[in-house]
Specification:
- The protein is of the alpha+beta class and 235 residues long.
- It has a single domain, classed as Glutaredoxin, CATH 3.40.30.10.
- The chain has a four-stranded mixed β-sheet with strand order 2-1-5-6. A two-stranded antiparallel ribbon has the order 3-4.
- Helix 1 links the parallel strand 1 and strand 2.
- Helix 1 crosses helix 9.
- It is globular, with a radius of gyration of 20 Å.
Length: 235
């Protein structure tokens, strides 16, 4: 079936700083190309640490130092460098306050938000809540506040969190990531063919989206060749 839009599928996690940067890089490229109406973004679930205890939260610096065995000084240096990089993309990283948590329920909410055409808004809001506002997203009521802020039904979301709804969708995305050989995130799949792994340079995103749009336009032109249109014009 011929597509009428460039479809960009993104595997990422809410607590992944490069995923946040990559998202904003992609949006910047789309805006620069004036292609908002030509690109569709589809979010896929991926968990960096599926074994993180549910209902708990610790600061991201402590998490990286204690659970990942990275010296605190190294964590702080990495965080400082990322914070500077984030400013280039209007991201206010506050790693010393950000509270790491198990993201499975957040992913379930994003999967549900797809059915409401609000997944992009919720994904963005959750990343901002985690990285910049130090909101404890391990707590259901805090998740629901973010849900409400983007205009989603808080009662429906509350019932979802009490159930296992959309768990299968999350697990299917993670399974698909393994089938695709994804070893880390963010991972961008463009029209099921071209891909970008990681938060690459801005030019990579611009070139990839521009090429996909050009290819799409070429396909549309080819599909219309050899036919007469209602206007009376034959091509």
């Amino acid at each position: 079936m011929k597509k009428d839009k460039v479809v960009v599928e993104i595997w990422s996690d809410v607590v992944c700083p490069f995923c946040y940067i990559g998202k904003n890089e992609l949006e910047k490229a789309i805006h620069k190309l004036n292609a908002e109406d030509q690109v569709e973004i589809v979010w896929h679930s991926y968990q960096l640490d599926p074994n993180f205890p549910k209902g708990q939260a610790i600061t991201s610096t402590k998490y990286l130092s204690e659970r990942k065995g990275i010296p605190l000084a190294q964590v702080e240096a990495m965080s400082s460098q990322l914070a500077q990089q984030g400013k280039e993309y209007d991201i206010d990283f506050k790693f010393d306050k950000a509270l790491s948590f198990n993201t499975f329920d957040a992913h379930r909410l994003i999967q549900w938000a797809k059915t409401q055409n609000k997944s992009h808004e919720l994904k963005t809001a959750l990343m901002n809540a985690y990285f910049s506002q130090a909101i404890n997203l391990s707590e259901s009521d805090k998740l629901l506040q973010v849900v409400s802020a983007v205009g989603l039904d808080i009662k429906e979301a509350e019932e979802l969190l009490k159930s296992d709804k959309f768990s299968d969708a999350v697990e299917e995305d993670i399974y698909q990531s393994r089938q695709l050989g994804i070893r880390g995130v963010p991972f961008f799949l463009i029209n099921e063919s071209a891909s970008i792994s990681g938060a690459q340079a801005d030019q990579v995103f611009e070139a990839s989206i521009a090429a996909a749009i050009k290819n799409l336009e070429s396909q549309e032109k080819s599909a219309n060749e050899g036919m007469c249109l209602p206007s009376g014009i034959c091509e």
